[in-house]
Amino acid sequence: MAGVVGRGLPAMGRPALLLLVMCAAGAQGLYFHIGETEKRCFIEEIPDETMVIGNYRTQMWDKQKEVFLPSTPGLGMHVEVKDPDGKVVLSRQYGSEGRFTFTSHTPGEHQICLHSNSTRMALFAGGKLRVHLDIQVGEHANNYPEIAAKDKLTELQLRARQLLDQVEQIQKEQDYQRYREERFRLTSESTNQRVLWWSIAQTVILILTGIWQMRHLKSFFEAKKLV
Amino acid sequence: MPLPGSAQRWAAAAGSWGCWLLALLLLLVTGPGGASEITFELPDNAKQCFYEDIAQGTKCTLEFQVITGGHYDVDCRLEDPDGKVLYKEMKKQYDSFTFTASKNGTYKFCFSNEFSTFTHKTVYFDFQVGEDPPLFPSENRVSALTQMESACVSIHEALKSVIDYQTHFRLREAQGRSRAEDLNTRVAYWSVGEALILLVVSIGQVFLLKSFFSDKRTTTTRVGS
């Protein structure tokens, strides 16, 4: 959004642009607090070939002023993304403000873990970190004004493009749903089989141990001349 | 399209005032909108809180669902900037709460698993603040939408609700699947365990019985004689 507005802007427009940028920066609305070596993990269950974009911004707690500093250079966050099989897809160090992107190649639960690697927090004891996080998946990750500018689309064409992306997302999700339902069905059938075989096996074990018990005891009592 | 010199200057000036107006409008009236959809793991005896700065008058919706873990329930609490509790529910599996922000400030919502001793839960929540950001910078949003555009908008809204239903269906299916997989493992362990117990008990019974008769025989002979 800021890119389209900023093109060829006169000097008067720059503060307005700054305001807009601040507004957009504040749009990374949701935030949470994280401790020094604490690791926070988020799960994204996505179909394959889906792009995920994550934006984060960190602020450090200043104990003296009892306020969160607007931005702290030198503060780093380590981002690790694992695919459903546990394989690491992305493992990188970013600055205090960062943006990470990955595309899924297998459908399933991807795990995004963030932790701070900063040793500076030890200096400000009782270090708390405020992390603003925004994760966009699939068609939400598309930046439509950028696409409009790049492909030179009219408003109607852009809207059609957005609808096409949404429908594609729905189709991918439906395919993933079919794959999941198959897994669920296999699990249920396996449970069914296991219960069946187990009940048969238990009955057989019961009968066999009963027979063995009686024969053993009979031979024992005969040996002891009680029968 | 290149404009003549004076028109260009006029357009630039109008553009800059437009930027100011737009920025001001955005900051005062709507505020940044959007949705945050997050799935996270809540360890046992833990509480996790999320915060968001919301402008007054914004309509917000918080929806959450527990996907895996224990009895699939969690405590949820939503507070406004003054600490007043807007929503508080204990041990809920799924709920949706809509409210309009009565004042500017930081709203806080927390999920708590403090009542559970050893099961950790996976919780999904979707926090929608205001409307989604518009598709365009809206520099020329003065004219009304044409029929085609409003058709596109209604299709977009319908598709958004399809995607929303799909998400909830996926979560319910994940919940069902998690229960089925738990059942499967439990049946496997239990059947092996029970077979072993059966064997141990039946063999033990026989040997215990034999040991009774071994002792009793000496006493019986003593009594008999």
Can you give a write-up of this model?
Chain A: InterPro entries: Emp24-like, GOLD_dom. Chain A: It is a single-pass type I membrane protein. With 227 residues, chain A is of the alpha+beta class. Chain A has 4 helices and 9 strands. In chain A, the strands form 2 sheets. In chain A, strands 1, 3, 4, 7 and 9 form a 5-stranded antiparallel beta sheet that branches. Chain A folds into 2 domains: 112 residues, Sandwich (Jelly Rolls); 84 residues. Chain B folds into 2 domains: 95 residues, Sandwich (Jelly Rolls); 65 residues. Chain B has a 4-stranded antiparallel beta sheet with strand order 1-8-3-6. Chain B has a 4-stranded antiparallel beta sheet with strand order 2-7-4-5, with no helix packed on it. In chain B, strand 4 and strand 5 form a beta hairpin. The termini of chain B are far apart. About 6% of the residues of chain B have low confidence. Chains A and B meet through helix 2, strand 1, strand 2, strand 9 and helix 3 of A and helix 1, strand 1, strand 2, strand 8 and helix 2 of B. Strand 2 of chain A pairs antiparallel with strand 1 of chain B, so a sheet runs across the interface.
Structural class of chain A: alpha+beta
Helix content of chain B: 40-55%
Write down the overall geometry of chain A: elongated
Instruction: Bin the strand percentage of chain A.
Output: 25-35%
Structural class of chain B: alpha+beta
Q: What is the H/E string of chain A?
A: HHEEEEEEEEEHH
Short recap of the structure:
The complex is a heterodimer of chains A (227) and B (225). Chain A has 227 residues and is an alpha+beta fold.
For the structure shown, list the relevant keywords.
heterodimer; A: alpha+beta; Jelly Rolls; 2 domains; five-stranded antiparallel sheet; four-stranded antiparallel sheet; 9 strands; 42% helix; 28% strand; elongated; disordered N terminus; B: alpha+beta; 2 helices; 8 strands
